[in-house]
Automatic annotation (TrEMBL):
InterPro entries documented for this protein: AASS, AlaDH/PNT_N, Lys1, NAD(P)-bd_dom_sf
Biased composition (Basic and acidic residues): 9-20
A Pfam family matched in the record: AlaDh_PNT_N
Organism: Streptomyces halobius
Coiled coil: none
Family: Belongs to the AlaDH/PNT family.
Name listed for the protein in its UniProt record: Saccharopine dehydrogenase
Highest rank taxon of the organism: Bacteria
Region (Disordered): 1-21
Keyword list, A-Z: NAD, Oxidoreductase
Domain Alanine dehydrogenase/pyridine nucleotide transhydrogenase N-terminal per the UniProt entry, residue ranges: 8-142
PANTHER family: SACCHAROPINE DEHYDROGENASE (PTHR11133), SACCHAROPINE DEHYDROGENASE [NAD(+), L-LYSINE-FORMING] (PTHR11133:SF23)
Amino acid sequence: MSDMPRLWMRHESRTSERRAPLVPEDAARLVAHGVEITVEESPQRAFPLTDYVAAGCRTAPAGSWTDAPRDHYILGLKELPDEPACLIHRHIYFGHAYKGQAGARELLGRFTAGGGTLLDLEYLTDNDGRRVAAFGYWAGYVGAALAVLHHRGLLRAPLRPLDRAALDAQLSDKGSPADERALVIGALGRSGRGACDALEAAGITPTRWDVAETRALDRTALLGHDILVSTVLTTRAVAPFLTAADLDDPKRRLSLIADVTCDVTSECNVLPVYDEITDWEHPVRRLREGDRPADIIAIDNLPSLLPIESSRAFSAELHPQQLRLSDTDPVWARALLAFETAVATNHEGSTYAH
């Protein structure tokens, strides 16, 4: 048992984040294998603390991870609070710090100052470079669903979490308007498949583009759709899919963009037509006014709108990796190398791109 990892699942400081990287059923499986798990109290998590207690987990007050024993891995999903300035633990979450994003240098500096480590969930990959655990399917599903609802005048803010049955009921409530056109870029990936499934549930047969179609992108065809759902995740700068000039094209039909990836502050952003994400309170931002408006939806925690389904899917993929959690396991070793490379480059004062 002493060789098994010790996990401390923190409360998420973002008030709209209701997901959990580890659900009670999978926590019970880890505990049965000798993994020690502490779960912080959280007033917003979609899974009751009592279910984790029944699974054999210990409990702790919200935010107490800062005082956790140093040998514990701190498990979370979204951004850390601004304090403490020095991070001493090994953290597992989506750090968004390796592609020059806003705040990346400061975050890496906090790890350097405290001697801690970031094992970024985005960089847990197999031998072929594929992510071993991802929220992509549900991010794509929710992103496309919100796009359809807004395009049909049915989206109401602020957004509230719900389940898939309720979301699908909204999508099918009034059917598809005549000749409603939607394009999914990155259609063969996890997020793309989710987006296509949501569009099909809404009665729309989407146009599906992936790598082959974006090598020589047909801008006229792109602008000829009503809805664009971008699910492309790139780790290097590429030619943008859409520009400000495209939005000013007098022949543009496109009126709504759903950016599932939300790399807005990174040089890897393929949609450099906006400079700030949207959120649950204000999910849509107007990019162009007038008689041919253009809007964008760019929410960076889309799966949290379906917290139960998305958490269970993610936890099912992640918890087997947690049984092998060590610096020598190939999956975790690659994540550690990505962090060490980012820290070294950050120290040199330049931008890191994985």
